[in-house]
Amino acid sequence: MVNPHSSQQAASESRFLKVSAFAQNATDAFFVCDQNGNIVDTNRRLEEFTGYGLDELVTLNLADLQLDLSPRKLKAFFRCLKKNGSVRIKRVAKGKDKSALPVEISLSNIPGEGNSSFLGVARLLEKESRELPDTNSIQVRKMEALGQIAAGVAHDFNNRLGVILGHASLLKKKTEGDESLLHSLDKIISASRQAADLAKQLLNFSRSNLERHETVDIHRCLGNVIALLEHGIDKRIEIRPRFGAERCQVAGDRSQLENIFFNIAINACDAMPEGGTLSFRTMVENLPHEIDGETCKHVCIEISDTGKGIPDHIIGEIFKPFFTTKGPEKGTGLGLSIAYTTVKRHKGNIGVESAPGVGTKFTVSLPLVKNDSTRFLPKKAEKVIEGSGNILVVDDEQSILEMAEESLQCAGYQVTCCQTGREALKIFAKKTDGFDIVVLDMMMPVMSGEELFREMKQIKPGIKVLLTSGYSRGGMVEKALAAGADGFIRKPYDIFELSRKVAQILSRK
């Protein structure tokens, strides 16, 4: 007679041996640690990665691998792990020979062990990037070139928008009493500003840094995204917003954040060709900060669908550049990759859960600003600030010059216009004391705004200069501001913004 307990034990031992053999021969490093981060067991790959022997590793703590996890950060990290069941982080570890090891570490509870033991998987990111196929390398170069083209297109696009926005605001200033005409002008101005945001997104495509840091209301971002979706997606898809976060202010770039949520939502809609439900949900949770590991409040944004779901074998690939299941004619495979990178730039995290046939849920967590007194920035009044003085305006676009000239004259100033840097320099050198301020475009051919700025400062160090640009290559604007420029106004601008900025600079002593 066969003892059933013996059979079960033998089967269990057989499974254990198979799992153990798999772990020992896996390409990733597997390890087990306790709730304090002490390493209990590991496979051979962790020895190969770090240079430590097994007998040395089992005497180490995760903090000993110099993962930028102090004892305090480690405690916060494990509190989060116990609460959520699993955590994934990216860090640069140090091997025994002090070599840098960029790694992605995933930790999760071991079933049956409560919260006392955890299974860890460490993957070398450096190796992964070296093994990108040649086709991806070609794609990277193509996308870099496309980014440069996008930046140039956005620059020209901003100039055209500047003419529309500038003259519409001028017309609004001159129009009084005709409410229907004012309403139409407001629509033109609003549409122009929305188009300017699209141009900025094109510019963001060519950049690797944050465009600007400001307090951003996540609920407003999601509201803007939902408003866009309502006009463009299948009418059989129902949108359900549930904004439960009592605070939702983060530091970052509004346009880039909206782009993240829009990309995720479009992918969700593509997964529901027969219709379904697209849900947006927000809440506040205490999570470890991406930079220092300290627990702080995050706003969590969940975007979920009732679509076909993502198969298990590809869910780990979706954030990689150029990975797509849509085919070359429908997708580039960059949407989620860009979303992942942008979230990381905002010191946040992004994760995904999916079940085939049930749907997919993306969760973006972003650290809240500590002081939300700037929760809602007041809208600047559309009022022309009048003044007096002589202004030199330099821009290579004739239409922009004409618009700026008329706007500043309308505000009470005397205006001289130049279309090239060399012409402006000659006039400025002859009339050194003839100008109170220079409005200077940074992107000009032959002599750039940056070169002209330096020459003018040599002639008259105290000259006030207001920089303008829709696109700053190589940080030219930042360099000029650091060198003494008095302010910057982004193209496209209108009469209200231009007159306000000029008045502010001239009022400074």
Explain what the structure shows:
It is a single chain. The protein has a 5-stranded antiparallel beta sheet. Strands 7-9-10-12-11 form a 5-stranded mixed beta sheet. Strands 14-13-15-16-17 form a 5-stranded parallel beta sheet, sandwiched between helices. It has 4 domains: 20-130, PAS domain (Beta-Lactamase, 2-Layer Sandwich); 134-205; 214-367, Heat Shock Protein 90 (2-Layer Sandwich), CATH 3.30.565; 390-507, Rossmann fold, CATH 3.40.50. Helices cover 42% and strands 23% of the residues. The chain is an alpha/beta fold. The protein contains 15 helices and 17 strands. The termini are far apart. It has helices at residues 4-25, 44-50, 54-57, 71-84, 125-130, 134-174, 179-205, 218-230, 254-270, 335-345, 398-410, 421-430, 449-459, 476-482, 495-507; strands at 29-34, 39-42, 86-94, 100-109, 117-124, 214-217, 237-243, 249-252, 276-288, 295-305, 349-355, 359-367, 390-394, 414-418, 437-441, 464-469, 487-490. Strand 3 and strand 4 form a beta hairpin. Helix 12 (421-430) packs parallel to helix 13.
